[in-house]
Amino acid sequence: MHHWDFQRGIASMQLQVQLGLDHGLSLDACLEGTGVTPAQLGDAASVVGAHQELALVRNLVRRLAHVPGLGLEAGVRYHFTAYGILGFAIVSSRDLRSAMDVALRYLNLTYAYNHITSEESGGEMRLVFEDSAIPEDVRRFLLERDAAAAFTLQREMFSQTLVPKALRLRGPRPPHAGLYARLFGVEPQFGAARNEVALDGAVLDAPLPQANEVSRRMAEEQCRQLLAARKARTGLAEQVRDQILRQPGHVPPMNAVAQKLLLTPRTLRRRLLEEGTSYKALTDEVRETLAEELLSAANLSVEQIAERLGYSEAASFIHAFKRWKGRPPHQYRLAR
User: Fold this and answer.
1) In a 3-state reduction of DSSP, which class is residue 91?
2) 304 neighbors 316 (Cβ within 8 angstroms)
């Protein structure tokens, strides 16, 4: 089960509440069960948990089920300014390839629920939207929203309309399929093996009109600081991270950590959940942070880094790293 324990800015909830208001919902109906107050919603500096935004999405999906393509309508509201400093890092990039690299590297600073990765072959780049971890009742909405938001951002980076080569989606053809074609400019293929948007590789290296290397570097540094601040842990979660960090090459089982902290495994699991995290999430955080440092600063092979982080084989580490960063370790290292 995914507990959606990561934090994000309030801008996404603001956009989706406005969507609800535009369709006649009250503010109370939109915010029901989210734990977010109207005052928090109005504060641009507010930070919320992804699970709180998920509650808002459920309210919209349940109350506005009669609106066709609601997720697509939500996604086109995500202009680059909605992403704050990350938006500026993206549009300041040299070309679309670099912009996608920045966006995927800091995916946790976006508002996506789909795990988005990219791959390139056969003269095209494919953005893959993995939605299997998203609860089924909101999966369609969030796939539509995340794909439309990503495409809206891409179009804003170019002075001309960007039309994908193909749009392939896993689910069955919905009654509002025509809305996909109007938005993306291409007839979607439903019942595909996975969700993906395919782009012509020729557009990847076209210079972006707002490219500025100095601005990109400054914005990306702020992105790193913001991501680090949001990952900061306190309370019991911080104590657990400390225990894991003591032996990063041999991650202790949760039972052993619970014993050191004078807790039962059940109590440890419950209290971490109350703090919005889990033992696996903390283990991944430690490994991800150490992997970034080793790839950036140490002259070690991917195999050696995998061994230092306690992976039995490099393939497992590469798979995990791609899940964290949207690309394999060697690509991450080359971009540093």
Assistant:
1) helix
2) no
Q: Check residues 165 and 157 and name the one with the higher pLDDT.
A: 165
Q: Which amino acid is at 322?
A: K
The torsion region of residue 312 among left (phi > 0), alpha (psi -120 to 50) and beta comes to: alpha
CA distance 17 to 66: 17
User: Going edge to edge, which strands form the sheet with 115-121?
Assistant: 115-121, 124-130, 195-200, 166-169, 189-190
First to last CA, the chain: 33
Query: 271 and 236 in contact (C-beta within 8 Å)?
Result: yes
Q: What is the mean pLDDT of the chain?
A: 88
Count Cβ atoms within 10 A of the Cβ of residue 42 and give its class: 0-12 exposed, 13-18 middle, 19 or more buried. exposed
Can you tell me the distance from the alpha carbon of 291 to that of 322, in angstroms, rounded to the nearest whole number?
12
Q: Tell me which DSSP letter residue 10 carries.
A: S
Q: Which domains does the chain have, with CATH numbers?
A: 1-67 (no CATH), 72-232 (no CATH), 233-335 (1.10.10.60)
In this prediction the pTM is 0.73
- H-helix or E-strand spanning residue 115: strand 115-121
Rounded to whole angstroms, how far apart are CA atoms 215 and 89?
A: 7
